Amino acid sequence: MSKKRILIIMGRYLPGFRDGGPVRSIQNLTDRLGDDYDFIILTCDRDRGDTKPYPGIRKGALNRVGNARVAYVKPHGFSFRIIKKLSDRADLIYLCGCFNDYARKTLLMKRMGMLDKPVLVAAMGLFAHDEFHIKYPKKKAYTTIMDRTGCFGGVSWSCSSEQEINDVKREIRNTGSFYVARDLPVKVVGDPPAKGKAAGELRLFYLGRIAEVKNLKGAVKALLHTDTEGLRISFSIYGGMDDPAYYEECRELLDRLPENVSWEYRGLIPSDRVVETLRADEHVLIMDSLGENYGHAIYEALLAGCPVLISDRTSWHGVEENGAGFECGLEDHSAFGRHIRDYALMDRETFGRTSEAAFAYARELGGAGCESGYRRMFEAAGETVT
């Protein structure tokens, strides 16, 4: 019996890594379910900001990348022709987001009857209140036009939670079926890391896009509200420079940190080296995020044995009861600051137990039997051709 063939259309994929979460989401999906489904990915031939295509890829052919076959096109090369050609070979079309050029074209083709395959649109956190209200007039105008012209009719939606379903329904009226499928985590490999740490020292880090929704500014404010007397703290910032103007605002705060708190912007980590880097170099993640569709950075930190300090705007509500970190109110800088000091004061043995708890929590969530709803969604959405 042949595998069900699923065409995934997305902005960028491996070997790129600058898009962060979306790339990791699809990589984890194909890694875990590639034995059961035939994944074809249509994507751009270069990473965000690059002027040249990835070396070694074949244009006009399907390139084997992990458990998927990938068709690469030039920027703005998501033509009606290539979408139609690959869709004809698939049983199901899975769109990553709905605001991109490729999504607009695919939805328009579906509306015009040019595609006879089911279309699933991944909401990807784009309709969360804080995220949607960034550049709100432009997004609202787009969704209103697409809604009123029927381009959202006859498609189904992949959401990470019931809350995300409500977020989509708040902005779009003409919707089809909804499915809940949480992002799959990276496979767990290796043993718990052995973290070196002295009492009074802490290597704190931020991992995420430099953008308002990720709230690096809130993490810096937490450090400014930390009683750092007698401590030595280093703060590393990892992530793509999505919003340079926002970063300059953060720099103004970073320059106000006391002398015993050093900081460094360390740029992007290639996706296949994130856990390895964090295992070796870092202690505790801080993410005062305005919202997370999944939060790959949080999972990867846990997998690296790093406890997490996160806002209450994520779906990671079990970190405290599992001894893997703390959840604080959004921009409750004083609460974040108290936990930062507590972690800094821990000696090697005490922190080692906390690090092992973080790794154990990640291992529990990401074991081989991990199931998030994707199989159920792919089977149900593919039953009826609309």
Report what the structure shows:
This protein is 35% helix and 19% strand. With 386 residues, the chain is of the alpha/beta class. It folds into 2 domains: 4-184 and 370-381, Rossmann fold (3-Layer(aba) Sandwich), CATH 3.40.50.2000; 201-365, Glycogen Phosphorylase B (Rossmann fold, 3-Layer(aba) Sandwich), CATH 3.40.50. Strands 3-4-2-1-5-6-7-8 form an 8-stranded mixed beta sheet, sandwiched between helices. It has a 6-stranded parallel beta sheet with strand order 11-10-9-12-13-14, sandwiched between helices. Strand 1, helix 1 and strand 2 (37-44) form a beta-alpha-beta unit. The chain starts with a strand and ends in a 5-residue tail after the last helix. The relative contact order is 0.13.
CATH topology of the largest domain: Rossmann fold
Measured by DSSP, the beta-strand proportion falls in 15-25%
Share of helix among residues? 25-40%
* CATH classification class of the largest domain: Alpha Beta
User: Rg to the nearest angstrom?
Assistant: 21 Å
How many beta strands in the DSSP annotation?
14
Low-confidence regions = none
Global mean pLDDT:
91
Which structural class do the helices and strands define?
alpha/beta
Q: How many structural domains in the coordinates?
A: 2
Give helix and strand order, one letter per element, not per position. Answer: EHEEEHEHEHHEHEEHEHEHEHEEHHH
CATH architecture of the largest domain, please?
Answer: 3-Layer(aba) Sandwich
Largest β sheet strand count, sense and barrel closure: 8 strands, mixed
Look at the structure and name the CATH superfamily of the largest domain. Answer: Glycogen Phosphorylase B
The neighbouring-strand order within the major sheet is 3-4-2-1-5-6-7-8
The geometry reads as globular
Output the number of helix runs. Answer: 13
Distance between the termini: 24 Å
